[in-house]
Amino acid sequence: MLFTNLTRHTEIGANCYSLEVAGKKVVFDSGLHPRERGQSALPRFDLLRDDSADAIFLTHAHHDHLGSLPVLMRRQPHALAWMSETTRNLAEVMLHNSVNVMLRQKEEFELHDYPLFSHREVDQTVKRWRSCPLHQRVSIEGERLRPDEPAEVAFELFDAGHVLGAVGVRIEAEGKKLFYTGDVNFEDQTISRAARFPEQDVDILVIETTRGDSPTPNGYSRATEEMRLAQALKTAFDRGGCVIIPVFALGKTQEILAMFYEFRRKRLLGNVPIYIGGLSTKLTEIYDKFAHTAPRQRPDLQILDQVAPFVIAGKSAGETQLQKSRIYALSSGMMTENTLSYTFARRILSNPQHSLFFVGYADPISPAGKIRAAAPGGSVVLRDGEPPIPIQCTIEKFNFSGHASRESIRAYVNKLRPKKIVLVHGDPNAIEWFRGTLSTDLPESEIIIPLPGIPVEL
Question: What angle do CA 447, 451, 457 make, to 5 degrees?
């Protein structure tokens, strides 16, 4: 087995990895870097010979795992892309939205090579996507296999618990089993249920490390955090303000809406108006469509019907007036420039009446990350060349991450006890924590940190 990290840096960026085994080559994920533009946002596809891949596995539909898939499939014209049925539906919406974003960026930043792919190419790419059920062994050629049926290279998908449709992938070849987790969560969320991963028979584990530098606070529980959020909302409304919550359109929006439904049901939240964006609405429709067929909590909950959020989209977004006792759960979660959350948050930063609530991960150098790191009563520079903006609104931070805690990942790896552990999808500090900790826990296991672009013999 020859494993190559096709990301450009050791970080959470454009996730993409190749694996050569038994004369076959497969690719795990095909992301787009959220902070970069143009060719530098792509993985190192130049290290992957054109038309050499036999299969592509997409673990879920977040852009850091999905966003360059049409470019990869253009260069790998004979490879099918495998994913869950839910991800297949979500990914199509996400990629078409990405084309629209790139068309806007082409004009704003004069990017001559944008868009990196077109709506037409997305439509053509979708024709080569394939879905298969969880826990079904499948040959690399696409034939369903019995549990004990031999195959040159076989794969199997497992529920990853990160967002709806997210999977991990187990590859079997030459008497060995490699498991690639993608993004994982081992705890139940409001909608997504905890991962159902294999707990034995894995020789090589390739695992994400996102939260390696974030210890879980003593006494933390999701139930306690939910109560803290409900109380913070009440306090904000009593003050006569509104609350803006930056969220990812996929995953976090649906989790927060389901949480608000539970708050209303338990009389922790009145029937206050809730606003979401257009992309979030399209993705929530898919969550509702697969409520009974995809692994999830509360399959009876039809989010759009029972929460009934209002939609802010198009030209009306810039004209929307902020009003008191309203919740604006808007993407993007990192408040990327020119997104709804960025635009709305800028309008309240210097207003002590309103509140800004963070509920998940934010890249430290993103606008959301900069605001989170600012001192209380301080200021923040959101865009180069602009003057600092005084921060006078109330800022609250809550932990509803869709990624597994470092403690739960450690527990899983210790239970699995693989011969080799490959650490990916993390900033250097996060990866280093896992390297040191797992080396102590499992001295007989080999810990591998694959440098970008350098093949590793497994």
Answer: 60
Q: How many residues does the chain have?
A: 458
Specify the domain boundaries for CATH 3.60.15.10 within the chain: 2-214+402-457
State both tokens at 34: 């959220």
Could you tell me which of 224, 311, 300, 308 has the C-alpha nearest to residue 264?
Answer: 308
Structure tokens at 226: 């939910």
- Homologous superfamily of 2-214+402-457 in CATH? Ribonuclease Z/Hydroxyacylglutathione hydrolase-like (3.60.15.10)
DSSP 310: E
In terms of Cα–Cα distance, which of 119, 120, 118, 114 is closest to 39? Answer: 114
Chain centroid, CA 275 distance in Å: 22
Distance, CA of 391 to CA of 375 (rounded, Å): 9
Residue-wise over 316-354: b if at least 16 C-beta within 10 A, else e? ebeebebeebbbbbbbbbbbbeebbbbebbeebbeeeeb
CATH topology of domain 222-397: Rossmann fold (3.40.50)
Whole-Å CA distances, 46 to 72, 159, 228: 10, 31, 48
Measured between alpha carbons, how far is residue 448 from residues 198, 201, 435 in Å?
Answer: 21, 19, 8
DSSP string, 6-54: -SSSSSSSS--EEEEETTEEEEE-----SS--GGGGS--GGGS-TT--S
Start and end residues for every CATH 3.40.50.10890 domain found in the chain: 222-397
Burial of 112 (C-beta count, 10 Å sphere; 0-12/13-18/19+): exposed
From first to last of its 458 residues, what are the pLDDT tens digits of the chain? 999 999 999 888 899 999 999 999 999 999 999 888 889 999 999 999 999 999 999 999 999 999 999 999 999 999 999 999 999 999 999 999 999 999 999 998 888 899 999 999 999 999 999 999 999 999 999 999 999 899 999 999 999 999 999 999 999 999 999 999 999 999 999 999 999 999 999 999 999 999 999 999 999 999 999 999 999 999 999 999 999 999 999 999 999 999 999 999 999 999 999 999 999 999 999 999 999 999 999 999 999 999 999 999 876 677 788 999 999 999 999 998 889 999 999 999 999 999 999 998 788 888 999 999 998 889 999 988 889 999 999 999 999 999 999 999 999 999 999 999 999 999 999 999 999 999 999 999 999 999 999 999 99
Contact 431, 5 (CB under 8 A): no
> Rg of the Cα trace of the chain?
22
Q: What is the pTM of this model?
A: 0.95
